Amino acid sequence: MRILKFGGTSVGSAARMHSVADLIQSSEPRIVVLSAMSGTTNSLVAIAKLLFEGEIQAATSQTEILRQHYMMVARELLPEPAVAEEAISQLSTSFKTIFNLMRQPLSTSGERVILAQGELLSTLLFHRYLTAVRGQDAVLLPALEFMRLDTNDEPDDAYIREHLAQQLAPHAGQKLFITQGYICRNAKGDIDNLKRGGSDYSASLIGAAASADEIQIWTDIDGLHNNDPRVVEGTYPIRELSFDEAAELAYFGAKILHPSSVLPARQYNIPVRLLNTMQPEAPGTLISSKTGSEAIKAVAAKDGLVAIKIKSSRMLLAHGFLRSVFEVFERYRTPIDMITTSEVAVSLTIDDATHLQEILTELRDFGNVEIDENQTIICLVGNLIQENHGSARLVFNALGDIPLRMISYGGSPNNISLLVHTADKTRTLKALNAGLFQR
Questions:
Q1: pTM for this structure?
Q2: 142-167: per-residue pLDDT in tens?
Q3: Which residue intervals define the domain Aspartate/glutamate/uridylate kinase in the entry (predicted)?
């Protein structure tokens, strides 16, 4: 069994769906997980926003524009008029759902129902294309029947495994299944979504529940690159990463993958392969339990950080000082990204400034507090075990005169983290690329 996930760009048009249909041809059992067509989720978010603001007429107009777009795609994808009209009738169910929600003030649960329509639309179209045009025997699996969150809004692994098996059971011998990414139900049974990681997370959870042999994430880039190709020239895809290395890169800014999406695969040791729908012949990136010998494989950057420094003479040898500091952040549900300490000070970073002022007020009870905004974490990932001598020297030689606000090394065998001002981000990435990967 293989799980193949295709993102919004990969299914963003009739032509792209043709290509995806070619890519999923195989004699092996496979579950294909689809995102909404590119642009659809943004449109649905905008429609929900208009409804929250009471702009019913504008929301109605935007929904009708989206409906007309899907009618056009259906007719392009399904050339037989009778087949296209039948599909259009089925698509209309999703749009009727949205229109019906306009009759009363929109609730949060109603917003989630609206957002779920994107994946329902894309899978309906693609499944109809496979069966009616390609003549393939494919089963449409409703994700809302097996994807579920628990009372803590985390995936309910036992429920997913049990109910996925129930959905698959009537189709023994079937080779091809199509399902939705991103959407699920919560513990109350209401329509919800996975938020973090979206359809990638769905694919990994389904892979774990189905005991898959491999999970494939198909996007529009050929794997995780060794640096940010948007700002650095001459980057290249990394062929192999360990689960831990991939999670570090994803957390610290590699946009191709969300850190949550590798966790179920790592738990069940299922390899994850990142592939490019535009270049299917490219080997992409393989993420598994194995790691290579390279000391530093890749660099990623995470913007939007705030650095906080708490300086206090009371910290010296004070039992429970750090615990008290951390409890402040816990009270405001604000994660800490990076931390360094000295005898009289502790510096840390956060990426959520929602409760910054309340946090600063409480921290001033411990001592003098300073903050630096517009900070960026530069994360260097690889096999940084102690036996790999010289890694830190290469990094600092490459950085030259770039001012560093914080340095974290040793907390993980896979990561060196540096904090710089965001204004220095681009030249830091370029300097590291020149010093580490072009020697």
A1: 0.86
A2: 999 999 999 999 999 999 999 999 99
A3: 2-276
